[in-house]
Amino acid sequence: MSHQDFSVSEVSADILCEFLEVAFHCILYVRQIYPPGVFERRKKYNIPVQVSRHPEVSSYIQEVVKSLRPLLQSNELEKVVLVILDGFERPVERFVFEITTPQQPNISDDSFLLRIEQALRSFILKLNICEALLSDKPKDCTWTVQVHTKESAVDTLQSQPLIESFPWVQAEDLQTSMADSRLVPLKAIQTGLVQMQLYAEEIEDKT
Amino acid sequence: MAVDQIYLENLDEFVNDENKVVTYKWLSRTLSVHVNQAKQMLYTFVQQQRNKKDNDKLSVCYFLSGMAETPDGGKILKAMVVPEESLDTMKSTLTTVTSCHVYSVQKVKLKDSNALYIADYDKLKGSLLQSKEFSAIRSDECKPRSLEELEKLEAASHPVITEPPAKVTTMNGTSGSKPKPKQPTGIAGMFSNASKKKEDKEENEKEEGKGDQEQKETVADKGKGKQGGIGSFFSKQQNKEPSTKSETTKVEPSVKKDSADAVKPQRDLNKKSPPKRGQKSKKTRKQDSDEEDAAPQKQKRRRIQVVESSSEEEEEDEVIPESPVPSPVADIPSSPEPEKMEEEEEEEKVEKVKKTGNSHAQSSNQHESSEKHRVKRRKKVTNTYMDKQGFMVTEEVWETASTDASDIDEPTKPAPVTAPKSKQDSSDKSGNKDKKVQPTKKKTSPDPKHSGKQTSLMSFFKKK
Questions:
Q1: Which residues, 6 or more positions from B308, have their beta carbon under 8 angstroms from its beta carbon?
Q2: Complex ipTM, two decimals?
Q3: Which of B19, B208, B304, B380 has the fewest CB atoms nearer than 10 Å to its CB?
Q4: Please, which domain of life does this record's source organism belong to (chain A) (predicted)?
């Protein structure tokens, strides 16, 4: 039984990692962080998604997601946040993925992972049309990824050799706090493998 | 009108409150209305919102189709989904506009067509096999398959067909996506009929074309009545109400989907292709056999399989020597014809030839191959005995029901037996009796099959 659980948690970690990668690319495209020419259309979950072609961007996202994987597997990840910062390094928008894995993840009723695929598809759709809910952001934005987790997890993470080549640093307060933010819920799913919630926070005045 | 009002309120909810991307296809399926009515509703909704409620946040996409000129002077039919802003520019690129109606309404300004595809995806996939009553595409020839046809296709779908690569190239090569190799089931069926007609009719259309289409209303029609486009082809053929619809838009997403993951679905569909393909005779013969076989077994099976024509027999004779360890474990419950047994026995013999280098076996093999053509029912019996020099000798003799073969057989066999024997004696006098015994042992080890002592499936067939 424990062996069974172990492999399921690996599977769910893999699925979430893939999804986060696709979602990050999607957000970058939709929020026009990079010019649309940089993106090319690829297929994921049987739908077209825009993925960045720039090697550094895609490798950066890959590294980020790879280093998140052990956290996902041990269920120590609270939130993953993609923060969009303006020219002054103030967060302007935040896309927050709250992820919780149930104690006993099981895929018994979804052995082909179809429902998970459907749920993730709906996430991507929502990201695609989230623009309607958010106000325009200023030009010259940069972005970063922040992770909320437990302190013990941070220690174990930093000791892993994988992370040493791609270190995570503690986020500065300036980058974490948003004043007068408005919360826009985007999507929430609940499946046997994972419970995920996506919402966006933005500050009122983006100029 | 009251009904419409309710629908419009629903639409309002979908678009404004839930921030959905509402395409006419999705709307038609959700509200269970005909697509033309859905298009009408979208249009009315947009008008209402913009004029009466001052809601300028709506973004609308239109479906536009019409004739255009190619640089070489030919004519092509274009069908496209355009955002509102580009509607006029795109219209000007077309010489005649055959169809223009609302495709989708949403609050968000779309960056590309991804969202349109995703918005419909689940709904469309869920209702693939449902009735097409809400669709405007009709065909008299499109009928559900009868049970017999289905069963035939089931049987034909088992052999793995190597055609898919060829089909993939044709699929990707033609923009009209000729799904002829596809099996028509449901939507795919409509497309195959539809596109066949489209191909046929395109030539006709060009001749009759313009005059006919000019009769149809073009710009800003309200989705009722005559919207030409692809439907005009069908109307000509069947004298029906011109059915509109983005058969092409349906084809487009499906073409995209198809070309994107072309190989796998092609394979699946091609498996069901009718047994008309007589060229693949060997593979179709496998219909009766193995789903349970292991893959390598399957490979061997193809070569060793029962063969009806003599030409193929010869082919298999050549093939057999190349095959690896014989598969005496025949787990196929197909009718065990003696020919099969013979073939496999021949194979073993060839094996022995390789292993022992015994010409004796070879000659007997040749005899058997020649005899195969003549006699059907034969039993091969091996006699093992000690000869004068003290060597074990295994002799394979055909015992048959009919007299011809056996009579011819036996006199020839002793002769080659003795001749190589002398050669062997001289060469192996260095006293490797063990060696001598071993090769014969090798011969004998598969043989017990014939005596039925060892449990193997060959004996199972033999006794039958």
A1: none
A2: 0.80
A3: B208
A4: Eukaryota
* Length of chain A, in residues: 207
- Residues of B with CB below 8 A from A125's CB? 21, 115, 118-119
CB atoms within 10 A of CB B442: 16
Amino acid at A89: E
Chain B contact present for A185, CB below 8 A: no
Q: Do B244 and B99 touch, CB atoms closer than 8 A?
A: yes
Partner B, chain A 10-29, Cβ-Cβ below 8 Å: 29
State the pLDDT confidence band at B153, using cuts at 50, 70 and 90. Answer: confident
* Residue B47 belongs to domain with CATH number: 3.90.1030.20
pLDDT score for A130: 79
Q: Which of A86-95, B17-26, B40-49, B196-205 has the lowest mean pLDDT?
A: B196-205
Q: Which residue out of B108, B118, B255, B257 would a mutagenesis test of the A interface target, given it has the greatest number of A Cβ atoms within 10 Å? A: B118
In B, which residues are within 8 Å of A29 by CB distance? 111
Name the residue among B111, B122, B257 with its Cβ closest to that of A36: B111
- Does B15 reside within a domain? yes
Structural domain including B89 reads 1-125
**Preferred mutation among A50, A120, A125, A135 to probe B, highest tally of B CBs within 10 A:** A125
Among A30, A47, A130, select the one facing B118 at the smallest CB separation: A47
Q: Would you tell me how many other CB atoms lie within 10 Å of the CB of residue A68?
A: 23
> How many domains in chain B?
1
Q: Which CATH fold topology does A8-203 show?
A: Cell Cycle, Spindle Assembly Checkpoint Protein; Chain A (3.30.900)
Residue B111 lies in a domain: yes
Say how many C-beta atoms besides its own lie within 10 A of residue B452's C-beta.
13
* Global model pTM greater than 0.90: no
One-character DSSP codes across B46-61: HHIIIIIS--TT-EEE
Decide if A89 contacts A97 (C-beta within 8 A): no
pLDDT tens sequence across A36-76: 889 999 988 888 889 999 999 999 998 888 888 888 877 77
Q: What is the pLDDT of residue B165?
A: 53
Is B99 part of a structural domain of the chain?
Answer: yes
Q: Looking at the complex, report in whole angstroms how far the Cα of residue A124 sits from the nearest Cα belonging to chain B.
A: 9
Mutate: best of B108, B123, B264, partner A, most A CBs <10 A: B108
Give domain status of residue B106, yes or no: yes
Predicted confidence (pLDDT) per residue in B253-272, tens digit: 444 444 444 444 444 444 44
User: What's the token pair of residue B424?
Assistant: 């062997």
For residue B377, what is the DSSP state? S
The shortest C-alpha distance from B449 to chain A (Å) reads 45
Residue (of B265, B289, B285, B266) closest to B277 by Cα position: B285
